[in-house]
Specification:
By secondary structure, the protein is α/β, with parallel strands linked by helices. It contains six helices and nine strands. A five-stranded parallel β-sheet has the order 2-1-6-5-7, sandwiched between helices. A two-stranded antiparallel ribbon has the order 3-4. The chain has a two-stranded antiparallel ribbon with strand order 8-9. β1, α1 and β2 form a beta-alpha-beta unit. α2 packs parallel to α4 and α3 crosses α5. It is elongated. The structure holds 3-(1~{H}-indol-6-yl)-1~{H}-pyrazol-5-amine. The site of 3-(1~{H}-indol-6-yl)-1~{H}-pyrazol-5-amine has 16 residues, from β5.
Length: about 250
């Protein structure tokens, strides 16, 4: 059965890229069932109001709870024979980090619903309502320690990272095996034809046909790159036979 992904946003067109390329094809193949909903469809006033001023004062506006409540009810009511419940994922700068490990976990779920906030965010009672009244698992997830203007960009990234892990979405062509962050090391440098370009040569070991030497060179490169760019990813399990993490 297809993995179901619902996205609620006041900028549904922001999610249009999900109809393209890989995710688009997975939708055609029935592997992913992606539905985007406009939050303003769940307002009833002339101006389709989704926000208001914050209690307690402060800058900016807060997203009203009622439209979100009605949008969630609509998502849950949609042809949902199995009575399954979605895992509600809400992007937020203060959420748990979105990592490859979390992407793998989420890719195992049959149904995800994403709430894209805007303004200063969503009234806190929506989270409580979703958990306590709708019985949903709710996860606030951060893409990184920087501030976006809303959740849409984060959802695009998460849907791509999760969608590509759904069996069948990635053909054999795009390798899923040696990926950055899969075993905690960054990827090694890659090359293709011509072997000499702009006076620059491909490292000879890669043309040697000596697959043991090639594998060793690639592992060394991954360690060196990780030590240089992401020392935080390096830990004891990556130490060499002498327990050293020093890169020669
Ligand atoms: N990682 C990250 C998420 C966000 C984010 C997510 C949702 C909203 C809604 C209003 N501002 C937002 C910011 N910023 N940075």
């Amino acid at each position: 059965p297809a993995m179901r992904l619902d996205v609620v946003s006041i900028f549904p067109d922001y999610l249009a890229p999900l109809e393209l390329s890989l995710i688009g094809k997975a939708r055609e193949d029935g592997l992913l069932d992606v539905r985007v909903h406009d939050l303003r469809d769940f307002t009833h006033d002339r101006h389709r109001t989704v926000d208001d001023t914050p209690y307690g004062g402060g800058a900016g506006m807060v997203m009203k709870p009622q439209p979100w409540s009605e949008a969630l009810d609509h998502v849950l009511a949609l042809d949902n024979p199995s009575g399954a419940r979605p895992h509600l994922v809400v992007p937020g700068p203060g959420g748990q980090p979105f990592t490859q490990a979390l992407a793998r976990q989420l890719a195992l779920e049959p149904w995800l619903a994403f709430a894209c906030g805007r303004y200063e965010g969503i009234d806190e009672r929506v989270y409580d309502h979703a958990r306590e009244d709708l019985g949903l698992e709710v996860s606030v997830v951060s893409l990184g320690d920087y501030v976006l203007n809303g959740g849409e960009v984060a959802v695009l990234a998460m849907v791509e990272a999760i969608g590509r892990l759904v069996p069948g979405v990635i053909g054999n062509a795009e390798s899923l095996v040696e990926e950055s962050h899969e075993d905690g090391l960054l990827e090694y440098p890659i090359y293709t034809k011509p072997s000499s370009w702009n006076g620059r040569e491909v490292p000879p070991v890669l043309l040697s046909g000596n697959h043991g030497a090639i594998a060793a060179w690639r592992h060394e490169q991954r360690l060196a790159r990780t030590a240089a760019r992401r020392p935080d990813l390096l830990h004891a399990s990556h130490a060499g036979p002498h327990g050293d993490l020093e890169i020669s």
